[in-house]
Amino acid sequence: MTKWTTDNIPDQSGRIAIITGSNSGIGFEAAKALAEKGAEVILAVRSQAKGDAAIASIQAETTNAKLQVRLLDLADLASIKSFAEQFNADYQRLDLLINNAGIMVPPYSKTVDGFESQFGTNHLGHFALTAQLYDLIKSTPDSRIVNVSSNAHKMGKLNLEDLNWENRKYISWTAYGDSKMANLYFTYELSRKIQAAGGKVMVTAAHPGLTASNLAKGAVVRFFNSIFAQSGSMGALPTLMAAIEPTAGSGNYFGPSNMAEWRGYPKQVFSNKQSHDTDIAEKLWQISEEKTGVKFQV
Ligand SMILES: NC(=O)c1ccc[n+]([C@@H]2O[C@H](COP(=O)([O-])OP(=O)(O)OC[C@H]3O[C@@H](n4cnc5c(N)ncnc54)[C@H](OP(=O)(O)O)[C@@H]3O)[C@@H](O)[C@H]2O)c1
């Protein structure tokens, strides 16, 4: 089997990509790879200074890279609305939306709108963002949406009655797993809805295995990562494959090929049985619309 690398990415000139959380880690490497192939990449990040530093770093290696920072805080529905309104006003196409930003196992806190922070940022923020950019994505030929999940989805078991963890003891790893499971429910349900409506937008998911980045804050996980994690450029390959590979197929999931999907070149992988539960996915969709106040029509 041949290895899928950035050499498999054809010329992206004329294409526009938004990558959330692209000032560091996997998002940064994906932005760099797409910009190197000629795409115009919008770094949707929450800090202008970090976004500017990321662009400077890419431009130091890639002449003529088309990059732009636009501020987006996924933990704030007003910020998401303002980002989408401005983008829709300024652009006539959106070829790729890569929902990559994420937080992992922080102490219990809530987003601006009162959602548990991991579910609010990792899932609800991206749900609201995608819904508000969807008309533009739909009007762009060969467009695609990629959601970045995790092996940690296997720890997820969403409690739809208590998504904000107000009635039970907070377990930050379970909440992270829930948010990454929600990324998969969203991917599969969106893909199903688009296909049922006869739409053409492709929706895929990816996970980076274990990748060195700024995600892990705890000393133990950082130590573990320093020994076992692969590089950011390797970790970005499943996302890039999910975003670019012509044969990817809507509703499919990509991850590393070696060591129980922790490392290696990317391939199609399979999420757990629960992530394919269509009843939960539909309920989560309705709850996501209610909580964000954003109606998502394909
Ligand atoms: N690294 C791994 O081994 C691994 C494994 C499985 C899945 N993942 C997933 O991969 C994705 C990327 O993570 P990474 O490893 O590259 O970590 P990272 O280097 O920490 O990147 C995460 C990005 O998300 C941004 N972000 C966090 N909260 C945000 C918010 N409220 N609004 C906008 N942006 C926000 C961060 O911005 P700031 O710099 O401002 O914080 C950063 O740019 C995440 O979805 C993560 O769950 C990673």
Structural account:
With 298 residues, the protein is of the alpha/beta class. The chain has one domain (10-292): Rossmann fold, CATH 3.40.50. 42% of the residues lie in helices and 15% in strands. It has 9 helices and 8 strands. It has helices at 25-36, 48-61, 77-90, 117-138, 172-196, 219-228, 232-235, 237-244, 278-292, and strands spanning 16-20, 40-45, 66-71, 96-99, 144-148, 202-206, 253-258, 263-269. It has an 8-stranded mixed sheet with strand order 3-2-1-4-5-6-7-8, sandwiched between helices. The termini are far apart. 50% of the residues are buried. The structure holds NADP nicotinamide-adenine-dinucleotide phosphate. NADP nicotinamide-adenine-dinucleotide phosphate binds next to α1. The site of NADP nicotinamide-adenine-dinucleotide phosphate (NAP) has 30 residues, from α1.
Q: How is the topology of this model organized?
A:
Blueprint: E1 16-20, H1 25-36, E2 40-45, H2 48-61, E3 66-71, H3 77-90, E4 96-99, H4 117-138, E5 144-148, H5 172-196, E6 202-206, H6 219-228, H7 232-235, H8 237-244, E7 253-258, E8 263-269, H9 278-292
This protein binds NADP nicotinamide-adenine-dinucleotide phosphate (NAP).
NADP nicotinamide-adenine-dinucleotide phosphate is lined by residues 20-21, 23-27, 45-47, 50, 72-75, 100-104, 121, 148, 150, 207-208, 210-211, 213-215.
Give me some keywords for this one.
single chain, 298 residues, alpha/beta, Rossmann fold, eight-stranded mixed β-sheet, 9 helices, 42% helix, 15% strand, binds NADP nicotinamide-adenine-dinucleotide phosphate
Fourth CATH level, the homologous superfamily: NAD(P)-binding Rossmann-like Domain
What is the number of independent domains? 1
The beta-strand count equals 8
- Reported by name, the CATH topology is Rossmann fold
Q: What is the count of helical runs?
A: 9
Taking the sheet with the most strands, its summary is: 8 strands, mixed
Percentage of helical residues?
40-55%
CATH class descriptor name: Alpha Beta
Percent of residues in beta strands:
5-15%
Shape verdict: globular
Provide the structure class: alpha/beta
What is the name of the CATH architecture? Answer: 3-Layer(aba) Sandwich
For the largest sheet, list the strands in their spatial order: 3-2-1-4-5-6-7-8
